Amino acid sequence: MLVLLPNRTGIQVCERFDSTGDVGRYSSLAVHSDGSIHISYYYVNGANEWLKYARF
Fold it and tell me: What is the pLDDT of residues 21-32, one digit of tens each?
């Protein structure tokens, strides 16, 4: 399960954005100059693997 805890306004918010299967391997996080958050990670389902991307 991957969970993001942004704190842009001083309020801690827990946002679960992927929880199905085996997620979160080799995750990488970047914050853009405009404040947007970019996350890439691997999702594994049996013999299949996908590189996934999320933006907040």
Answer: 777 778 888 888
